[in-house]
């Protein structure tokens, strides 16, 4: 059975109904490690060696976060910068994560219809995720896709259910 690491980057997970709903609905027969980096590093001082060991110890990695100001939360950006280092994740003869399956799960405050080309925002959710997707591809990991739960402040049961189904599929890719 594959070991799955969920790198959870939510600055206020306890208050997040949507992110908790997604995680709590995941099947119990999957070998999951949920690693909340805001809980692990409240001071922002990331233990790079520990994080790299966690990544190496798992077959599949899901990066889960709320999209904030059309971007990743600040600690996740710092985590990406500090953990995916030159000489370890990329660079001369270093390829720690080559072929590792990595996906993205995000929540957004806007409704689904807000994330289309001709909307107020003018961009799709996937376009907002492009820096993370490019990072995954740059380190030669296997990008397996993304799931977005929109309307995170008040999703319908159907929206949550659909996102959970997509999340479970992401765990199988």
UniProtKB/TrEMBL annotation:
Keyword line:
Oxidoreductase
Is Metal-binding found in the keyword set? no
Lineage, top-rank taxon, reads: Bacteria
The GO terms this record gives for MF are: electron transfer activity; FMN binding; NAD(P)H dehydrogenase (quinone) activity
Residue ranges of every copy of the Flavodoxin-like fold domain listed in the record: 3-170
Question: Does the record bear ATP-binding in its keywords?
Answer: no
Q: Which InterPro entries match?
A: Flavodoxin_fold, Flavoprotein-like_sf, KefG/KefF
Instruction: List, alphabetically, the PANTHER family matched.
Output: GLUTATHIONE-REGULATED POTASSIUM-EFFLUX SYSTEM ANCILLARY PROTEIN KEFG
**What's the name of the protein?**
Flavodoxin-like fold domain-containing protein
């Amino acid at each position: 059975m594959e070991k799955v690491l969920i790198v959870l980057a939510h600055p206020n997970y306890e208050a997040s109904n949507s992110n908790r709903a997604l995680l709590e609905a995941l099947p119990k027969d999957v070998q999951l490690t949920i690693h909340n980096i805001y809980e692990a590093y409240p001071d922002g001082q990331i233990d790079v060696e520990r994080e790299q060991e966690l990544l190496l110890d798992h077959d599949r990695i899901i990066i889960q976060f709320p999209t904030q100001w059309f971007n990743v939360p600040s600690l996740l950006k710092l985590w990406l910068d500090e953990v995916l280092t030159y000489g370890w994740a990329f660079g001369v003869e270093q390829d720690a994560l080559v072929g590792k399956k990595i996906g993205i799960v995000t929540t957004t405050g806007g409704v689904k219809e807000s994330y289309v080309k001709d909307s107020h925002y003018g961009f799709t959710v996937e376009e907002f995720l492009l820096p993370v997707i490019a990072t995954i591809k740059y380190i030669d990991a296997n990008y397996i896709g993304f799931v977005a739960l929109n309307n995170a402040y008040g999703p319908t049961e159907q929206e949550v259910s659909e996102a959970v189904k997509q999340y479970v599929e992401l765990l199988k890719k």
